Amino acid sequence: MKNNKIYSKIILPLCLALAGLFTSCDDFLTVYPTNQITGEEFWEDKNDLNSVVASCYKQLYSCTQKMFVWGELRSDNFLLTSESDENIKNIMNANLLPTNSWFDWADFYTGISYCNLCLQKGEETVEIDASFSENDWKPIEAELKALRALYYFYLVRAYRDVPLVVKANDTSEGAIDPVPQTSSEEILTFLINDLESVKDNGMVNFGKDSFNKCRFTRKGIYALLCDIYLWRAAKNTSADSIAKYPGEAEADYRKVIEYADYLTDEMIKDFKEKRETYYGSERSIFKGDVIPLPLYETSKNKRVDDVPYNKIFGDKCSLESLFEIGHDGSTNSNSAVTKFLGYGSGGKLQAGALSAAQAFQSVSGKPDDAAVAYSKTDLRCFENIQKVSGSSSSAVYNIVKFNVTKITTDGADDVGASSTNINYGNWRSSSNDANYMVYRMSDILLMKAEAIACLQQYILHADDEELNAEGFKVAKAVFARSNPMIEASDDLKLDSYNSSQALEEFVMRERQREFFAEGKRWFDLVRYALRQGNTSKMLNLLVVKYSTNASAIKAKLGTINSLFNPVYNDEIKVNTALVQNPAWVTDETIVKN
Question: In terms of DSSP bridges, do strands 436-440 and 321-325 run parallel, antiparallel, or are they unpaired?
Answer without folding.
Answer: antiparallel
